[in-house]
């Protein structure tokens, strides 16, 4: 059975373009479209789609308010946010509201296809896991109340190393900083939004150095190591995308961890054989996504 989609966006041309991309690419069927948040809530509760494409800024309810309203009413759809907004705090709020991915305007077919293929893949995996869980619960019920076996919790390092390895970053010195940063963030009582980047660098630097001047110097060194590590990951994924645009690593990590425009620029550079220093990786976005994947891996 094909997946069902609803589109909520106050731009009629954006709605039509998204519908065309979804249906022309065989990603699923668009069962309804709305031009505002309030209309979207009514539509989605009525149609109960598998996936919702939601504009962030709309004249009545914004996308985050609309998603919160839907989830409060028991909606189980998966959400993909669409917007021109580059504000890191807004992006962070959107991810915390429960969205799966972010698609940036102006709409680009390649980015939409790459993101929705990944959403479809996650949806299928989650559905399969739910079926397995249901089967196991039935089996446990037949075992006369035998207590379940305890599951060993994975460490931050165990969760992050495969992710960094898949992006070709594990050999970079900045990968150690990423693991240190995530260990510190996951140990906080406030596990919600991330602190400012400056505070994050200083937290990590304080685990390496004690003197205040050394910490300030180490903070700058950490930022540079992170930039080099992320640049290596971006370059590796762009190379994979050039040789195989449908490669699962490229489809998952490129649009999730990096701004897709940066990925395309890096692919163009590699293709033309000229490297420049113009592409600046978005460290805040990378850390936000890595932190969310860590939380998911730790079952939080």
Q: What do you see in this structure?
A:
61% of the residues lie in helices and 9% in strands. The protein has 300 residues and is an alpha/beta fold. It has two domains: 4-121, Response regulator (Rossmann fold, 3-Layer(aba) Sandwich), CATH 3.40.50; 156-297, no CATH class. A five-stranded parallel sheet has the order 2-1-3-4-5, sandwiched between helices. The chain is globular, with a radius of gyration of 21 Å.
Helices, strands, pairings?
Layout: E1 4-8, H1 12-24, E2 29-34, H2 37-47, E3 51-55, H3 63-72, E4 78-83, H4 88-96, E5 99-104, H5 109-141, H6 156-166, H7 174-186, H8 197-208, H9 212-243, H10 248-257, H11 260-272, H12 283-297
Parallel strand pairs: 1-2, 1-3, 3-4, 4-5
Helix pairs in contact: 2-3, 4-12, 5-10, 6-7, 7-8, 7-9, 7-12, 8-9, 9-10, 9-11
Shape descriptor reads globular
Give me the strand/helix succession.
EHEHEHEHEHHHHHHHH
- Unreliably modeled segments: none
- Please state the CA-atom Rg, rounded to the nearest Å: 21 Å
**Portion of residues in helices?**
55-70%
What structural class results from the helix and strand content? Answer: alpha/beta
Oligomer: single chain
The tally of domains stands at 2
What is the tally of beta strands?
Answer: 5
User: For the terminal residues, how far apart are their CA atoms?
Assistant: 31 Å
Query: What is the beta-strand fraction?
Result: 5-15%
Give the biggest beta sheet: 5 strands, parallel
């Amino acid at each position: 059975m094909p997946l069902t989609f609803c589109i909520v966006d106050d731009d009629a041309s954006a709605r039509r373009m998204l519908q065309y991309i979804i249906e022309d690419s065989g990603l699923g069927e668009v069962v309804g479209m709305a031009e505002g948040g309030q209309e979207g809530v009514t539509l989605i509760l009525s149609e109960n789609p598998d996936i919702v494409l939601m504009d962030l800024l709309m004249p009545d309810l914004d996308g985050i308010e609309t998603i919160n309203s839907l989830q409060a009413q028991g909606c189980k759809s998966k959400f993909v946010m669409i917007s021109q907004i580059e504000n890191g705090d807004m992006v962070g709020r959107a991810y915390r509201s429960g969205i799966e991915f972010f698609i940036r305007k102006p709409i680009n077919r390649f980015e939409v296809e790459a993101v929705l293929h990944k959403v479809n893949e996650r949806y299928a995996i989650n559905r399969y896991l739910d079926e397995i869980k249901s089967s196991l619960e039935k089996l446990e019920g037949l075992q006369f109340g035998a207590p379940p076996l305890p599951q060993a919790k994975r460490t931050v390092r165990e969760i992050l190393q495969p992710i960094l390895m898949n992006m070709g970053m594990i050999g970079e010195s900045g990968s150690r900083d990423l693991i240190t940063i995530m260990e510190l963030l996951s140990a906080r009582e406030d596990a919600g939004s991330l602190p400012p980047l400056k505070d994050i660098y200083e937290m990590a630097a304080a685990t390496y150095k004690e003197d205040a001047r050394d910490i300030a110097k180490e903070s700058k060194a950490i930022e540079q190591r992170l930039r080099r590590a992320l640049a290596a990951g971006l370059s590796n994924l762009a190379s994979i995308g050039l040789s195989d645009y449908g490669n699962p690593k490229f489809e998952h990590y490129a649009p999730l961890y990096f701004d897709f425009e940066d990925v395309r620029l890096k692919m163009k550079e590699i293709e033309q054989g000229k490297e420049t220093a113009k592409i600046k990786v978005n460290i805040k976005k990378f850390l936000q996504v890595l932190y969310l994947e860590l939380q998911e891996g730790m079952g939080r």
